Amino acid sequence: MKLSDNKATLSFSNGSPSVELPVYQGSIGPDVVDIRKLYAQTGMFTYDPGFMSTAATQSGITYIDGDKGELLYRGYPIEQLATNCDFLETCHLLLYGNLPNTAQKADFTKRVTMHTMVNEQMQFFLRGFRRDAHPMAIMTGLVGALSAFYHDSTDITNAEHRDISAIRLIAKMPTLVAMAYKYSVGQPFVYPKNDLSYAGNFLRMMFANPCEEYKVNPVIERAMDRIFTLHADHEQNASTSTVRLCGSSGTNPFAAIAAGVACLWGPSHGGANEAALNMLEDIQKMGGVAKVGEFIDKVKDKNSGVKLMGFGHRVYKNYDPRAKLMQETCKEVLNELGLHNDPLFKLAMQLEKIALEDDYFVQRKLYPNVDFYSGIVQRAIGIPVSMFTAIFALARTVGWIAQLNEMIGDPEYKIGRPRQLFTGSVKRDVQPLAKR
Ligand code: CMC
């Protein structure tokens, strides 16, 4: 970051002396006011619940321009990455800062592929869960448990340990997600097959069974790969910030990523794709396209408590670029599977059309986000709704690790320790039990 000529002055109405605060510039995006010495200079903290105006870190990984609807991984637009690169190239980019050349790609792919199997003991651990456990409950447990199996890559201060744990996590997440699924449907686990692509291998582990050969469909494989790429990173969102905060204590990478999985589980974050698909199914049950107008009226009625799921975003105040790519993939997958007349897709298109023309949505800058179409794609592929967030976690793992490693490598890195505005009781004395 670069010190700006601009400076901020903070003055007080009670006559306390004003303080001058440095301003820093990034390569793009808003400047920041540096308040690190504020407490020492004034005895005051800043107050910003929800981090509405606080940059918790500097980062060179992902940039979002919410007004333009732009998403860049290491400077590359998501549209170019989604159409010209595969997920493992994107992983290399996020982790190491550059797109791999042919030799680097082959080497990286080989390293990831050689780590896809999980310790055999993991399946006994998994078998301790109820069959009807939510896949995210299982994933939170399994990812944290990796630290009990891979003791040679748990030292976060060791760059080699960090690299090997990154490769292990990227390689093993598809295996663990597929195992969680197989367990829930009572089928045998399918071991990874290393001559398949990352996405192809995942599809096979999900849908193959020992009784018949599974042939990977290239259109579905590309769609899966694109879902992974579009979800790979998204700057300092709740789960990424959780991973950073958790990792800032020096805990091992598997434990820090497990914290990210737990955070992603929530319906305001990774759980929204599940909610968007459930909403479409509900409207379909109510009467489908004919009921869209009625549903939109309900969404606009503030007393109804109904939201158009898959619409709106904290950062994007324009069309989420990932939603456009997902819509394209959605059409490809439905055509390939002969589902071009899929009623849910038609319903989604109609909802989108009406919402984009409606003043309520236009004035509030509410546009479709990535979750609006990703559920339809996953459902068409045969993935049950309850697995959607686990697949999001699989894809986001690389972003979490890249952000964690960036933090550990930052010379300004410190344990994260927010402060508070205390509003509880002032000091008081404990009374004997009989007098309380
Ligand atoms: N349907 C109807 N009204 C909405 C919606 C929606 N989906 N989203 C926002 N609004 C309204 C909101 O009621 C408010 O109206 P008013 O100004 O009259 O009070 C206005 O738009 C601004 O909304 P906000 O809640 O202040 O915006 P936010 O930035 O705090 O919330 C959001 C962002 C994503 C939580 C919200 O848009 C939402 O709940 N969307 C539906 C859930 C969803 O699709 N989430 C997925 C996000 S993308 C996945 C990811 O990147 O993790």
3D architecture notes:
By secondary structure, the protein is mainly α. Helices cover 50% and strands 6% of the residues. It contains 18 helices and six strands. The protein has helices at residues 38-42, 78-84, 87-96, 102-113, 121-126, 135-149, 159-185, 198-207, 218-230, 238-247, 253-264, 272-286, 292-300, 321-336, 343-357, 359-363, 371-381, 388-409, and strands at residues 2-10, 19-25, 32-33, 62-65, 70-73, 76-77. The chain has a three-stranded antiparallel beta sheet with strand order 1-2-3. The chain has a three-stranded antiparallel beta sheet with strand order 4-5-6. A hairpin with a 4-residue loop joins strand 4 (62-65) and strand 5. Helix 9 packs across helix 18. The protein is globular, with a radius of gyration of 24 Å. It starts with a strand and ends in a 27-residue tail after the last helix. The model has no long low-confidence stretch (mean pLDDT 94). Carboxymethyl coenzyme *A (CMC) is lined by residues 234, 237, 268-269, 272, 299, 307-314, 364, 366, 369-371.
